[in-house]
């Protein structure tokens, strides 16, 4: 049996630690089920010094040091693997998650301390790696889903690992290995009254994947989109529009929440799923309503919902929850059903209210559908959270005005994120040369800079630069259409050629003038 140390890297330095890493908690549970000895150091929760990390790395003779995350954790991961290889040279350093899956060869080049990488879903590949380590068999070439180094130090990518078909076979996450007191302290989610008053929140993944093909989204290689290409005898990853939608049975979901309620006393669940409504549609429109029914039957319905009274965090029994939705996939019937089961908020990726820009991002929605879903969700008693971006490739002054006018009409208060070409997304591939130009050809400099889209990193807007995006967003938030009009005149004076002129003319010929209203 192997001694495995999982390290959860710092993911958002600018925010408090709010989410137990669900994938790592599952892998820890799988490793324990296989008979291995497992410990966790949660650097994101503790925000500890290098002195503490050094103590942890030296605390035992680890066989494996495993870590991973999304691209925004890259800076922390880079620091941890350097220290791990320096202090624990005998340990196999294993990395995984979206940051590596999106560009395995690049990451192995940037991080020479990583011995093996797990590309895509790790539920099968990682335990097989541990079994081979136990048997003193380091023939990594025989394990699908791994990237490793040959004798010359070159990275080699194996064929992809098929996704796990029966995800109900997964054990429950080992939440208890993580400092829950830290996460519970940061339970509040400023999306709804119930979420804001939560004291013991845990998050779950009820499904994997999403049916949509948004050009700004990366599915971490777990949605059936991960495929491989081969050039000059070397494999590499590519991401397609292919989808394999997987979801836990309603019984598994509700039993997991019951377990978390009984074991940890939770009062709120955050669904980490990309899109709950995708799963509902894929199941024949029964999945969410079956979850809602079982939620109530198993005694998880919040007392305030059952009795029709205002939520009182001191007295309310049961478990409230929140998750994600999609404007074109929700319905009044399902919204009313999940409200009765305790759903307090749904996050909608509205992205934009510009019909022209919306056609370019692959979202599959319309401004009218956005507005309709907002009304339906409010009517059901659920708080809709509008998630929007600006700085799209085809953003212009008209599209910015479309958003402000829609906000005014719908009564929304929004501060948009900046459109960011995260590695693994279609935009990253399309604008990679432009990204590199902005970082002097240094791809790693971009990885170290990329954040949670609250600030500008690589600009992919064809019309606006970083300074303009910051200023224009401020004018949008202030609803200052007068100054927006004034700056448009100034912009046109300085730029005699509009880079979007041909595209806008083609749009006008096909669809007519941009409609700046929602209904």
Description:
The protein has 519 residues and is α/β, with parallel strands linked by helices. The chain has a domain of 166 residues: Cobalamin-binding domain (Rossmann fold, 3-Layer(aba) Sandwich), CATH 3.40.50.280. Helix content is 39%, strand content 16%. It has 23 helices and 17 strands. The strands form 4 sheets. Strands 2-1-3-4-5-6-7 form a 7-stranded mixed beta sheet, with helices on both faces. The protein has a 6-stranded parallel beta sheet with strand order 8-13-14-15-16-17. β1, α1 and β2 form a beta-alpha-beta unit. α10 packs parallel to α12 and α12 runs parallel beside α14. The termini are far apart. 46% of the residues are buried. The model has no long low-confidence stretch (mean pLDDT 94).
Chart the SSEs and their pairings.
Elements lengths: L2 E6 L13 H12 L3 E6 H4 L3 H8 L6 E5 L5 H14 L4 E5 L1 H4 L2 H7 L5 E3 L6 H10 L11 E4 L5 E3 L22 H6 L7 H4 L4 E4 L2 E2 L17 E6 L2 E6 L6 E2 L2 H15 L3 E4 L4 H7 L4 H11 L5 H5 L12 E6 L6 H9 L2 E9 L3 H4 L8 H13 L3 E8 L6 H14 L6 E2 L7 H5 L1 H7 L4 H7 L16 H12 L3 H14 L6 H11 L8
Helix pairs in contact: 10-12, 12-14
């Amino acid at each position: 049996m192997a001694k495995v140390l999982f390290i959860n890297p710092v993911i958002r330095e600018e925010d408090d630690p709010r989410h137990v890493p669900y994938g790592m908690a599952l892998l820890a549970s799988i490793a324990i089920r296989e008979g291995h000895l497992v410990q966790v150091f949660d650097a994101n929760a503790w925000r500890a010094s290098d002195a503490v990390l050094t103590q942890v790395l030296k605390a035992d003779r680890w066989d494996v040091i495993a870590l991973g995350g999304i691209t925004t954790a890259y800076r922390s991961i880079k620091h941890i693997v350097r220290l791990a290889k320096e202090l624990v040279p005998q340990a196999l350093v294993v990395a995984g998650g979206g940051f590596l899956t999106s560009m395995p060869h690049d990451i192995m080049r940037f991080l020479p301390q990583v011995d093996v990488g797990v590309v895509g879903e790790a539920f099968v590949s990682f335990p097989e790696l541990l079994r081979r380590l136990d048997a003193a068999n380091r023939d990594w070439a025989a394990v699908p889903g791994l990237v490793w180094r040959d004798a010359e130090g070159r990275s080699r990518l194996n064929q992809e690992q098929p996704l796990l078909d029966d995800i109900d076979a997964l054990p429950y996450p080992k939440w208890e290995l993580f400092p829950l007191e830290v996460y519970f302290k940061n339970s509040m989610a400023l999306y709804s009254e119930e979420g804001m008053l939560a004291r013991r929140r845990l998050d779950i993944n009820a499904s994997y994947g999403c049916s949509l093909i948004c050009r700004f989204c990366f599915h971490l290689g777990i949605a059936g989109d991960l495929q491989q290409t081969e050039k000059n005898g070397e494999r590499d990853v590519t991401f397609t529009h292919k989808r394999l939608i997987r979801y836990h049975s309603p019984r598994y979901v509700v039993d997991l929440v019951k377990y978390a309620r009984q074991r940890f006393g939770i009062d709120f669940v955050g669904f980490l799923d990309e899109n709950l409504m995708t799963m509902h549609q894929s199941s024949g429109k029964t999945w969410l309503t079956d979850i809602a029914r079982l939620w109530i039957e198993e005694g998880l319905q919040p007392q305030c919902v059952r009795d029709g009274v205002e939520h009182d965090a001191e007295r309310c029994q049961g478990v409230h929850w929140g998750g994600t939705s999609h404007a074109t996939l929700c319905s009044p019937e399902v919204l009313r059903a999940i409200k009765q089961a305790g759903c307090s908020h749904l996050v909608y990726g509205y992205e934009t209210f510009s019909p022209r820009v919306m056609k370019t991002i692959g979202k599959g929605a319309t401004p009218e559908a956005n507005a309709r879903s907002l009304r339906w969700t409010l009517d059901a008693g659920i708080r809709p959270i509008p998630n929007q971006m600006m700085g799209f490739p085809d953003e212009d002054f008209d599209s910015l005005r479309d958003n402000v006018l829609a906000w005014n009409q719908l009564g929304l208060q929004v501060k948009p994120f900046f459109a960011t070409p995260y590695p693994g997304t279609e935009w990253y591939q399309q604008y990679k040369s432009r990204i590199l130009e902005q970082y002097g050809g240094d791809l790693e400099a971009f990885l170290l800079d990329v954040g949670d889209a609250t600030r500008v990193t690589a600009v992919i807007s064809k019309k606006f630069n970083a300074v303009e995006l910051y200023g224009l967003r401020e004018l949008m938030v202030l609803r200052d259409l007068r100054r927006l009009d004034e700056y448009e005149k100034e912009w046109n004076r300085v730029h005699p050629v509009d880079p979007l002129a041909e595209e806008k003319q083609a749009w006008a010929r096909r669809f007519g003038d941009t409609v700046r209203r929602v209904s």
